[in-house]
Structures are given as C-alpha cells and as structure tokens.
Amino acid sequence: MSKSLVFIEQRGGKVKRASLEALSKAAALGGDVIAVAIGGTGTAADAASLGNYGATKVFAFENESLANYSANAYAKLISKIAKEESVSLVFLSATAMGKDLAPRLSVRLGGALASDCVDVKHEDGKWIATRYVYSGKAVATLELQGEINIFSLRPNVFPAVKKSDAAAEVITSVYEPESADLKTIVKEIVVSAGKLDVAEADIVVSGGRGMKAPEHFNLLEDLAKVLGGAVGASRAVVDAGWRPHSEQVGQTGKVVSPKLYIACGVSGAVQHLAGMSSSKIIVAINKDKDAPIFQVADYGIVGDVFEILPQLTEEFKKVLAH
Amino acid sequence: MNIAVCISQVPDTSARIKIASDGKTIETADVNFVINPYDEFALEEAVKLKEKFAGSTVSVFTIGGDNVIANLRKAFAVGADKAVHLKDETPKDAAGVAAILAEAIKSHFGAVPDLVFFGKESTDFNDAQVGPMVAELLGIPAVTVVVALETDGTTAKIEREIEGGKEMIEAGLPLVITAQKGLNTPRVANMKGIMAAKSKPIETKPVSTDAHSKLSLTKLEKPPQKQVGKMVGTAAELVGLLHTEAKVV
Predict the structure, then answer these.
(1) Inter-chain contact B168–A103, Cβ cutoff 8 Å?
(2) Which superfamily does CATH assign the domain made up of B2-220 to?
(3) Size of interface A-B (CB pairs under 8 A)
(4) Which of A253, B3, B5, B157 has its CA 20 to 30 A from that of A309?
C-alpha cells in the first residue's frame, strides 16, 4: 500500500485551495495520506481540519521565520518528514511555491518528478502522470520510475472534496532556523492591491488588440468585478505596454484553466490558445467571424466588443442578483 | 565574476505542433528551433552583469544535437564568451539534464560559479525543474521566476513573481536565478557581435542523460478537440446560456 505526503501551502496564514485539491487527489488514490503544513503562528491550529480532506496525520511546523516562504527551510522540513515516514508519493500544487519546491525535493529525495499534472493514476503497478507540454499544444503521458514519485498538480483541475468531519492527528514540531536555511530571505511580499491573479481566478475576462487602447480595459475590469474574476491580456497588448506582464495569458505568459474564460477582441494566436484552451467554458467576442479564437470557443458572438461588453456586464448583474 | 547561462532549443512560439509517427516525439521537419524565450532574459541579464563587473566571463551551456550550434553562435553574438555543447541527441528528462549540467558547470569553471542563470521554464516541456535541480546539485540556493535582480557581486536583491504579487528577496552569492519575462529587454545582436561570434570557442562533449533519468514519456498526443461552439446573437442570450446550459454563473 502506498503512503503519500501532501505539502500544504499557506500564504498570509491561509491554506491555499490548491493544496486541498492536492490532498483530495492523494486521498482519492488511496493508501495512507499524511500532510506537512509549514508556516507562522496558527499553522498547527488549522491543521486538524485537514482530516476533512483525507489526511490522517499532519506534521505542523510553526515559526515566525517560516511565515514567509523559505525555499531551503521548507525543502529541508518536507524531505525530512518524507524520509522519516517512508512515503512513496509526494504531492504539491503547481503554484509559484510548489513549482519552486518540487525540483528541490526530487533531488533531496532522489525521486522522479512530474510537474503541473492534470491527471495521476496507478495502472499495472506503474505511476502514470498526464500533463500538457508545448504550452498546451500537446499532451504527454509519463511513467515515473522513482522509488519516490513526486507530482505537482495543476490548480483548478482536481476537485477539493470534503469527505468527512474527521480531525487529523496533529504533530507539532519545533523548528529552529539554521544558517543554511537563511541563504535566501523573503524580506517583504508586495501584493498587487485587491487584484486576483489571472492564474488563480475562477473566471478570466481577457482582452486583445481588438480593445484598441489601454483605457478601454476598464470595460473588462468592470465585467471582471461583477463576476469576481481577473483580467487577462494577450501578448500583443502586453508587448504594447497596455497591460502588465503578470496578466499575460499564453505560451510566454500564464497558462490558465478557469471555469469561464471570456476573450474579448482576442484573435486567438496559437501561442494564446496554448495558454487558455484547457479552460472549462470559453466565450469569444470578436468582430472578425473568422478569428481562430472561435475554433476553441464554446459560445461566440460576432460583433463589436465596445457595444457588447457593457450589455454583458448588465446582463450578468441581473442574473447574479437572483 | 564567473557566470553560467543554461539555454535550451525550443520550437518557436508560432509553430504548430505535429506528433511524429512514433507517438512520442514531434515532427521537426518544418519547425524552426530558437533559443527558449525565457533563456533570452537569462542571457541578457548575464551579459549586463559582465558589462558591470570587469573581468567577468559568461559561459553558455546547452544539451542537444548539432542543431544547437546556431543558437550558441547567437548567444555569442549578444555577448557570451564561451560555450559548452553537451552532445546528447535525445536528452531524457529534467533530472538527467540537471545532473549533466551541474557536472559540466563545475568542471568548466573548476568551482561553483557566482551566478547560474536559467529561463524560468522551457516552452517545450514546461517542467520548470532544471534550474532548482542544478542548484541543489551544486549545493547553492536558487531563486525562481525572477523579474528584477540587483547585485554588488556578494549579495543580491531580487524580486520574484508569485500569484498576485512579488516576493522581495535577499540572498548571498553564489546563486541560481531563473528568469521571467520582465527581467530585462534582450538586446538584438549588432554586426560587430555577429562577426565576433564566429571566432568564439565551443567545447563539445558527448554525454548521456540516461543514467540519471527517472521517468519516461510513453505517449504524446494532441489535446482533445473541442466540439464546434454555439454562435449567439446578443449579450442577453449569451448570459442566459452560461447560466442555464453551461452553469458557470
């Protein structure tokens, strides 16, 4: 029987939903599931509730020096527990933190690593991962051959499933930082005020060159606000300096898979489609009926974004008011 | 300063990917292979530091077949000094590549260099693994997805992109940095650089990643095709369908 370790990520004292998704997936695969939670004050107090998602035991490391991400310290603590508990599987989410940690763990544990997986299964005694490659233009099936196999899971793909009200056994461990842990120190985290990240949002409203000028993005901001979503942008408008790179969706930007992606005035260059075509529902609004974006769209409107967007915002307001 | 930059070759971003008949690789005949776009930011940052710190050397490392040579010359043309071509026609996986690179970097400089640059990921396999793996193998820290770097040669102030913001980081050298778009604007080679590139040295070493590899790719396929979507006439109709049919709002 396999034994899995799931790393629980928190930012600002709050457990990330993507970690609950990873925990749920590990639990669904079977075997014993333990979790490692690392953070500042309050980390241990929250840990018992991870039992609801299938963790039997949680190792909690709580220290003010761990409140912000510390790559060396986190990697050390996770690999320590993985070794002591003799786990054969490790799960993380493919977030900024998870992507940074996973390769370090694979070296420290001598394990195989599949990044940003959209499926993980055990077949004929083998661990198989499915992931997008060529930035979404192809899908690869990988067979992992490590004594320990490590998976980082793409956020928003696996459901977070609360299975029970069971509490996990929490083992609080003391952590004293050593000099090797402090080789890189996060001095400060600067948050883009009030903005949801395009890679984390459930709904993305994205604009391309068809928006004509940077000031017209307020139409997208309005719609995103009504929907509780984030604004995304095509490479063309980022390169033109209309929007920050952090909003770029596509092969040299972010790969997103929200439940709803609304592309406005985006023609649908191959490299843009690569970044968003795994969204659950895609809506395209474009005045060119032959724009490639319509080939991946579930719903399309051929028309003027400047007319349609304000109407759309009003219609969503009506529906959401009910 | 000793500076290493690791680059890889990827299909250019406008390339349409066709799966080869073996079902495991892509057809390369019509594909233009370029320096991975994120590696260009890595290279530019290394050259900028070389210009700032007199006596620095920028050495470029890459793994692949003979088609990497043109890209190594491009790296020379924008300011790299030396190149190491680790010749393996079919590198297996990130673990294999990282093991070979770490070894080559150490032996090339005779020690761990001050800075080792990578792109934040390659646009072919999108693993984002090799940079931090090499850091672990060299026993030095890594900061990934970097959008700003300032160093005095001993310590560094770094901005790293995270979801919805940035981490402001302080670190000591030596260090691995993986570059994100926004770090700089890569220069375009001028004629002088292109001429100089012709005489710069490329060292070729046959290698094999097989012994270090930990996974195998068993199948490569196109993503599932979407069904043809529904065209609608008005905003009201669209919102109705998203609400009642797609049930996403």
Answers:
(1) no
(2) HUPs (3.40.50.620)
(3) 255
(4) A253
